[in-house]
Amino acid sequence: MVKLTDVAKLAGVSATTVSRVINNYGSLSQHTKDKVFAAMQELNYQPNSLARSLQGKETKLIGVIFPSVSNPFFGELVSLLESHLFAKGYKVILCNSAENKEKERAYLQMLIANQVDGIIAGAHNLGIAEYERVGLPIISFDRALSNTIPIVSSDNYTGGALATEALLKAGAKKIVILSGINQPNSPTTERLNGYADTLKAADLQPITAEIDFHTAANIKALKIHQLLVDQKPDGVFCTDDLSALLLINEAQKLGLAIPTDLQVVGYDGTKLIQDYHPELTTIMQPIDDIATLLIDLLLQRIKDHHVALQPRYQLPVKLINGQTTR
Amino acid sequence: MVKLTDVAKLAGVSATTVSRVINNYGSLSQHTKDKVFAAMQELNYQPNSLARSLQGKETKLIGVIFPSVSNPFFGELVSLLESHLFAKGYKVILCNSAENKEKERAYLQMLIANQVDGIIAGAHNLGIAEYERVGLPIISFDRALSNTIPIVSSDNYTGGALATEALLKAGAKKIVILSGINQPNSPTTERLNGYADTLKAADLQPITAEIDFHTAANIKALKIHQLLVDQKPDGVFCTDDLSALLLINEAQKLGLAIPTDLQVVGYDGTKLIQDYHPELTTIMQPIDDIATLLIDLLLQRIKDHHVALQPRYQLPVKLINGQTTR
């Protein structure tokens, strides 16, 4: 069976270029188009996708790429994406990309091969160049994937500021931020900026601790234990709720009373946390609004590949007061 | 044997139209599609899979139907299913069926219409008759869907017995089981049987409390609170870990010390619970083995629709001793 890559090889162009010709997307010279069409004819290449795109037929499938639905935040977000997409006649192809570049690449190639109508991605194993190359509808959650891919986030800066203000107001003086590895361009790094600016305005020194998001929980717990021993903070802003739960467990092992000796604020505020850990003070992301906006933007771009979208969309966050702050 | 033309006649459309619906080809109104699906169901029409595979027309898509990936147990199971299926060249179409018959039906129709190669289902909104009618590869997790659909489960009976024995050994005398609604034919009802038989062997009386699985957590918490007040148990076997967490929270509100006044055993033992609630004594389901076996059986049946499979496959469970039992 003739493949798109065979066409590309014969025409002497990339697979992406063939895909663009098929989908009539992007600016291509007539010369290139002619070469591709000639190769397609010579090989009798009849992709479903060609027939489909000539008829304007959609697959009604959306690729959804997140680190893993076993993480409660992504589990809830993907669950909402699936529900809202189903209501609009779309089905979800699920990709857990965690730490697997090849897998993320395979899903992007599906898009290039026109097997899904669009992608919603919150993963970031691959470089921006690979996302640039796709050139078809993608909307990102909380990740800088490419200059042409709009990003939907919660208002990470305000979230970081709100968390830090809550700790300051409750009397904490030595406030540590515990986060994943902060990439310079990542939207989540704004949580750090909101934290640092708020501390500086109060003449206090930021103290940052970074633990890679993918670290196993038991290793993360050991590192948190050491952090508490070394730094002796009286307040910690954890940029995700699960790390906050680990921190609380480790604090208890050290005999630290919460919130008397140590105050803690998390981030995410999933339904799981609100239902099963209502004691945790946290910053709640509007997960349902995030899902709705991601889908709205993606469907706009599927309908019209050239629709003008903003580079960034930020949705408001809320402080949920629990018993881990005074 | 029912032919495509029979379907066409009953639906009052042409054979070409039926073919187009089956292959999801061309533009068809929802009304037409619905008529054709209804006729296919009524006649139990099974599109010719042999012809399809001769044409190399496998979709390499597997439908995965569970209540919701926002539930940590299903989130972990679906995450593992996706990873293992990806390694075998399949992609996952995700369906969160929670309390939505129409949605579950729509996904089954996809299967009938030959848009996925098979389905792994752990949902049960629909009657057995609707699953009987599908007649194509489905493997079930923990649900009796039809006599012809194999069921993979953890060893629910032994799990119930182990949990109850742990509570007895730790000295509990008034042991309540807190579960979802027990259906007579459901594999999970075996947890109740394991509990009841173990208590009876110790000359104790079973006390059952049932709360519908889909009940919102805050309402469930109220019911659990009342249960603790009314029954004053000294041991509770919760047939899922999240209910155990709610129970522990409510017990603490009532000033009950755990495990001194009240001992608790959960069920599921997800990675999330082991990482973030290592204090909970629970029965661990072998989630990775469950995922592996579900896929192995499904791929066997996709390869050969008539392969002989057992009606039930049960995988061993383990007691994880935490600090909620003595």
UniProtKB/TrEMBL annotation, chains A, B:
Gene Ontology MF terms in the entry: DNA-binding transcription factor activity; transcription cis-regulatory region binding
Highest taxon, organism lineage: Bacteria
SUPFAM superfamilies tied to this protein: lambda repressor-like DNA-binding domains, Periplasmic binding protein-like I
InterPro entries according to UniProt: HTH_LacI, LacI/GalR-like_sensor, Lambda_DNA-bd_dom_sf, Peripla_BP_I
Keywords per UniProt: DNA-binding, Repressor, Transcription, Transcription regulation
Domain HTH lacI-type, chain residue ranges per copy: 2-56
Protein name as annotated: LacI family transcription regulator
Protein source organism: Loigolactobacillus coryniformis subsp. coryniformis KCTC 3167 = DSM 20001
